[in-house]
Amino acid sequence: MNIHEYQAKELLKGYGAPVAKGVAIMSAEEAEAAAKSLPGPLYVVKSQIHAGGRGKGKFKELGPDAKGGVRLAKSIDEVVANVRDMLGNTLVTAQTGDAGKQVNRLYIEDGADIDRELYCSLLVDRSVGKVAFVVSTEGGMDIEQVAHDTPEKIVTVAIDPEAGVSAANVTEISSALKLEGAAAEDAKSLFPALYKAFVEKDMALLEINPLIVMTDGHLRVLDAKVSFDGNALFRHSDIVALRDETEEDAKEIEASKWDLAYVPMDGNIGCMVNGAGLAMATMDIIHLYGKEPANFCDVGGGASKEKVAAAFKIITADPKVEGILVNIFGGIMKCDVIAEGVVAAVKEVGLTIPLVVRLEGTNVELGKKILNESGLAITAADDLDDAAQKIVAAVA
């Protein structure tokens, strides 16, 4: 689960991280009062969408010469003008795709005098089984580009989970970022605080880009991107309350209500599977035979008939889907339950596109019998290779 920048900053502020004063608004009428509550005289008006590259983005409605989704303002009147220009319009960035995202929230923040821009993130480094800091002196840039062009400028520091962030860790990170004086002193409290927030809130990613050294020598979190481990959200009702469903695909929201894993993609074949490995194999073989998956919906290991029916409805709600491949290996999941769910869903929503079903495992013969006797236009497959060829041929 992702949250907005202003929410991330408020969360990190609670752990002692240095952030600028700011106010989130959802209507243009709030802009003037929000700006007047800040020190000024420099303000930053920031689009709040779940995507990076906002500053370089363009608003669909404003033309190619308009300013981006992050704007500086030198007066309250300029703040208000920018708010009216941005709010409610569609921002297209490198991460949103051509469709873009509508800006429903803005964050008006006090400006900062920047000396240097740095990069700092925390993530789970599975190669060592620890949370790690990933830092670079090249802040304010796409970290992927830095990794490609100058990988030597990226330093990774893994943290011992028993010891936490040690003084030696802080020294190593500070050295990598070339911090001195007041910034180095700030680092002694900032980096342990970031690690504590990451662990206590079950984050999947904490990215600060940029982390700045201001002209007065101190550090400040200028931007913050935070995502959380969805499997741990049951422990964090305060985090769940921050969820902005307008930033999410409606099908993903519906899937989460049924505890389904749903991932949208760009092809035209919908996939219902059970298990991540089987999902990858299913998508790979669809690609092998010349088509691309439109999505996959993982019903897990022990789904009910109702859960399977819900998954089928979610898949068919995607207008890109021109055919569906159901690929289930029944271990804990029984093939007859899958068959009953598919039949129930087809009877409820109708079937106007090809549907190929491959079942294998527990109660497979019973599952096939249910499908064969349903009277529905369902194509059975003998194995995964056969299933992939049949669905690809059907949507060709």
TrEMBL record:
Q: What is the lineage of its organism?
A: Bacteria, Pseudomonadati, Pseudomonadota, Alphaproteobacteria, Hyphomicrobiales
* Record-listed E.C. numbers: 6.2.1.5
Q: Which residues form the signal peptide?
A: none
A Gene Ontology biological process noted in the UniProt record is: succinyl-CoA metabolic process
Q: What is this protein called?
A: Succinate--CoA ligase [ADP-forming] subunit beta
Q: How does it assemble?
A: Heterotetramer of two alpha and two beta subunits.
- Family, per entry: Belongs to the succinate/malate CoA ligase beta subunit family.
Q: Which GO cellular component terms, listed alphabetically, does the Swiss-Prot or TrEMBL entry include? A: cytosol; succinate-CoA ligase complex
Q: How is the cofactor bound?
A: Binds 1 Mg(2+) ion per subunit.
Write the record's keywords in alphabetical order, separated by commas. ATP-binding, Ligase, Magnesium, Metal-binding, Nucleotide-binding, Tricarboxylic acid cycle
Look up the domain of life of the source: Bacteria
Q: Tell me one GO molecular function of this protein.
A: malate-CoA ligase activity
Pathway membership, UniProt:
Carbohydrate metabolism; tricarboxylic acid cycle; succinate from succinyl-CoA (ligase route): step 1/1; One-carbon metabolism; formaldehyde assimilation via serine pathway
Database matches in HAMAP family: Succ_CoA_beta
> Which SUPFAM superfamilies does the entry mention?
Glutathione synthetase ATP-binding domain-like, Succinyl-CoA synthetase domains
Q: What residues bind Mg(2+), as annotated?
A: 209, 223
Q: Where does ATP bind?
A: 46, 53-55, 109, 112, 117
Summarize where substrate binds, as residue positions: 274, 331-333
Q: Which reaction does it catalyse?
A: GTP + succinate + CoA = succinyl-CoA + GDP + phosphate; (S)-malate + ATP + CoA = (S)-malyl-CoA + ADP + phosphate; succinate + ATP + CoA = succinyl-CoA + ADP + phosphate
